[in-house]
């Protein structure tokens, strides 16, 4: 049945953290990744479209592709990733203690997390906001009608905080029912324990397809918060921080330049100087990060550009069927924007 | 003429390093100093490293606003309370489930243990089946069973099962009327406390009297009468200053009254039923440990069945029962942290869960949490040891 009690892991992580900070061990992540031969990547315990194992047991999703991109840039092979499923509660301790090299698990970039946990956010791979899902027969059309509702949430998330703010601001009460994993949250919602399931909106679409009868549930129109989700690394290792950051930037730039996993081979000798710099034909932008010159080429070849990654996992070509919206390129009315490679 | 060899040797004090007692003391001090030194080094090292990694440390976070809701709280808690308050809320919820769990497990365990020894074949076999089933299924599964299986079987708030339009049961929990004390109710409470004291005095007096004259009054019934009857009388005389707030269906859910959330019910039932299966076995073996001859002798002395049980069997059985019972209590308390699996807001779920995650101060939070479990466990052990010692005295 489901996941076992996660407390031992949490305590183990805390102990590991205590041990690792007591000894002061902190090797350069890049060196240790090269030595191990794979990237250890913290993902969710199963959120379709973002990080979930497929029928064959391979991890798939937008967050998983971030890990694969990093592996392609560093090791030249996108498959050299080891995935560590983490609940919301465990994720930061796992990163702080060095159990994982990157955390790519629909994690919201907030001031506390960025400044007081010893972590750095390397970018935003999905701009999101918190929403509500209700069962259709509740007969509710707006979140403003939810006064007194029982609400299922996942513990250790920004969701818990936004929810309390929103209800207080609108002078409404609620009963929080808090679970550890999304599986349990969905079960609680299905069992009728709560009227509402709240989470980042993208995740609501993901969780809805996990329901026995997805058509019986609907997502309310209100979006009550800003949830910029992105990969996270440990603070104090700037080289690794740069690698993760620029891997994502390379994918966004590639989309802007029209480079895809299919045409990148042909574009290797393109005369456009922007393209030439990105694929490593002109200059060596990998060197300063300790990467080979073709780092970005490998990322795009093996994982694709940002748009491909989006469509494949969460976009209209996927079960989630989410519009690009805010996540369209800045040149297409969205806010995805990457600094230039030069 | 003196000869050096014939001087009595005892006069010379050996140097302190030759004195085994002093030497031992010195080594122990050095050892202790060493241990503390290493500890201090680890702590200071950890602090500097946490600092250099940009991880905030210290306990200042306990004063910051928590900003999240908690399902069940025994104190006044709102989203604007502090992280320190979340610690208290979690701690009290842990204590509540542990205390009620220990009580229920003890009652069920004793009943089942005695039933197991019943001469009635059916009763004894039913108890055996109960014990074997619940002892052998992992607790976490039982918790999930009571939570998800039973939850699904219950109706939605609109179709609640109700008892006299006052008590309601649905998927959101059990709703019971809340007592609202009116003017003068405090007098009733005061009388109640007095009655308890009075019956204590009465029981003491009755014992003394029995020791002196050999006669005794039925103390149990009389004190029950004092404790219940007198306050009841005062209550009626005062014009029954107590009203009930009934739960009422408003919007999606019931409001008013007292809500017992299903997370609590499921965890309580699971913990009690599981631990009771072990206690039943302990009780059975405890009773069986009292030689049968003693029962026969008591009968021969024409003691009644209940007197035999109360004066001969139970006191001796308790001595066998209490030590393993203590470890069952400790197990129950520690197992209550499985609450987090179904979202009952205990210490681990609220404080070592949400608070840890929102503040990121894993080391402080986990240390505090472990300290709490250690303290509770030590206190329970101490109490049970004291109780055990008292029971042991019964054997003169
Ligand atoms: N973005 C929010 C929420 C993240 C989150 O954990 N969301 C839940 C949605 S219910 C989830 O992804 N659960 C998947 C899992 O537990 O593995 C945060 O960073 O705090």
Task: Please tell me about this protein's structure.
The complex is a heterodimer of chains A (342) and B (396). Chain A has 342 residues and is of the alpha/beta class. Chain A folds into 2 domains: 7-18 and 26-127 and 229-324, Periplasmic binding protein-like II (D-Maltodextrin-Binding Protein, domain 2); 130-225, D-Maltodextrin-Binding Protein, domain 2. Chain A has 13 helices and 14 strands. A 5-stranded mixed beta sheet of chain A has the order 10-9-11-8-12, sandwiched between helices. Chain A has a 3-stranded parallel beta sheet with strand order 4-1-5. Chain A has a two-stranded antiparallel ribbon with strand order 2-3. In chain A, helix 9 (238-257) packs across helix 12 (295-302). The model of chain A is unreliable at 1-7 (pLDDT under 50). With 396 residues, chain B is α+β, with helices and mostly antiparallel strands. Chain B contains 11 helices and 8 strands. Chain B has helices at residues 20-52, 83-116, 121-136, 139-153, 185-213, 219-237, 262-288, 292-300, 305-335, 347-359, 362-393, and strands at residues 161-163, 167-170, 173-176, 178-181, 242-245, 248-250, 253-255, 258-260. Chain B has a domain at 89-159 and 262-396: MetI-like fold (Orthogonal Bundle), CATH 1.10.3720. The model of chain B has no long low-confidence stretch (mean pLDDT 89). The interface between A and B is large, with 62 and 53 residues.
């Amino acid at each position: 049945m489901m996941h076992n009690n996660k407390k031992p892991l949490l305590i183990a992580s805390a102990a590991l953290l205590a041990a690792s900070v007591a000894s002061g061990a902190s090797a350069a992540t890049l060196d240790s990744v090269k030595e191990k031969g794979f990237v250890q990547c913290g993902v969710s315990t199963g959120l379709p479209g973002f990080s979930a194992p497929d029928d064959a047991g391979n991890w798939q999703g937008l967050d998983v592709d971030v890990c694969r991109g990093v592996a392609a840039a560093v090791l030249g092979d996108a498959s050299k990733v080891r995935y560590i499923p983490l609940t919301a509660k465990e994720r930061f301790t796992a990163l702080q203690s060095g159990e994982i090299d990157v955390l790519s698990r629909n994690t919201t970039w907030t001031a506390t997390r960025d400044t007081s946990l010893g972590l750095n956010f390397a970018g935003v791979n999905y701009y999101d906001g918190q929403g509500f899902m209700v069962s259709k027969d509740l007969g509710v059309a707006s979140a403003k009608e939810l006064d007194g509702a029982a609400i299922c949430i996942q513990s250790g998330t920004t969701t818990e905080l936004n929810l309390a703010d929103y209800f207080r601001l609108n002078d409404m009460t609620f009963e929080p029912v808090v679970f550890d994993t999304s599986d349990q949250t969905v079960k609680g919602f299905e069992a009728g324990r709560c009227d509402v399931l709240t989470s980042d909106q993208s995740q609501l679409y993901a969780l809805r397809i996990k329901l026995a009868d997805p058509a019986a549930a609907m997502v309310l129109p209100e979006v009550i918060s800003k949830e910029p989700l992105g990969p996270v690394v440990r603070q104090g290792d700037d080289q690794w921080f740069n690698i993760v950051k620029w891997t994502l930037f390379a994918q966004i730039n590639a989309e802007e330049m029209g480079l895809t996993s299919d045409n990148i081979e042909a574009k290797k000798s393109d005369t456009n100087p922007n393209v030439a710099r990105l694929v490593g034909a002109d200059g060596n932008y990998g060197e300063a990060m300790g990467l080979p010159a073709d780092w970005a080429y490998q990322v795009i070849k093996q994982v694709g550009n940002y748009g491909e990654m989006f469509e494949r996992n969460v976009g209209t070509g996927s079960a989630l069927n989410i519009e690009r919206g805010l996540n369209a390129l800045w040149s297409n009315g969205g806010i995805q924007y990457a600094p230039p490679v030069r | 003429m003196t000869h050096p060899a014939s001087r009595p040797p005892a006069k010379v004090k050996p140097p302190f390093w030759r004195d085994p007692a002093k030497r031992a003391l010195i080594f122990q001090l050095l050892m202790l100093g060493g241990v503390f030194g290493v500890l201090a080094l680890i702590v200071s090292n950890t602090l500097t490293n946490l600092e250099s990694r940009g991880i905030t440390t210290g306990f200042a976070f306990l004063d910051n606003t928590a900003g999240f809701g908690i399902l069940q709280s025994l104190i006044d808690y709102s989203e604007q309370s502090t992280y320190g308050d979340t610690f208290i809320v979690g701690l009290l919820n842990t204590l509540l489930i542990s205390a009620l769990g220990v009580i229920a497990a003890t009652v069920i365990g004793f009943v089942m243990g005695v039933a197991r020894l019943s001469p009635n074949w059916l009763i004894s076999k039913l108890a055996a089946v109960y014990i074997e089933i619940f002892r052998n299924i992992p607790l976490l599964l039982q918790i999930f069973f009571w939570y998800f299986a039973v939850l699904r079987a219950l109706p939605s708030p609109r179709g609640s099962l109700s008892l006299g339009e006052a008590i309601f049961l649905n998927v959101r929990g059990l709703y019971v009327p809340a007592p609202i004390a009116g003017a003068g109710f405090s007098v009733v409470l005061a009388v109640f406390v007095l009655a308890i004291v009075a019956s204590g005095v009465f029981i003491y007096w009755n014992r003394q009297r029995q020791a002196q004259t050999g006669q005794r009054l039925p103390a149990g019934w009389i004190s029950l009468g004092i404790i219940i009857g007198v306050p009841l009388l005062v209550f009626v005389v005062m014009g029954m200053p107590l009203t009930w707030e009934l739960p009422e269906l408003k919007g999606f859910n019931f409001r008013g009254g007292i809500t017992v959330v299903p997370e609590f019910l499921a965890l309580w039932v699971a913990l009690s039923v599981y631990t009771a299966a072990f206690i039943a076995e302990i009780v059975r073996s405890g009773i069986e440990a009292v030689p049968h001859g003693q029962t026969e002798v008591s009968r021969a002395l024409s003691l009644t069945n209940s007197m035999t049980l109360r004066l001969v069997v139970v006191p001796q059985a308790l001595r066998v029962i209490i030590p393993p019972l203590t470890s069952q209590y400790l197990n129950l308390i520690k197992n209550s942290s499985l609450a987090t699996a179904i979202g009952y807001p205990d210490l681990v779920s609220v404080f070592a869960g949400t608070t840890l995650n929102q503040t990121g101060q894993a080391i402080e939070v986990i240390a505090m949490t472990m300290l709490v479990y250690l303290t509770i466990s030590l206190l329970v052990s101490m109490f049970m040891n004291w109780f055990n010692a008292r029971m042991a005295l019964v054997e003169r």
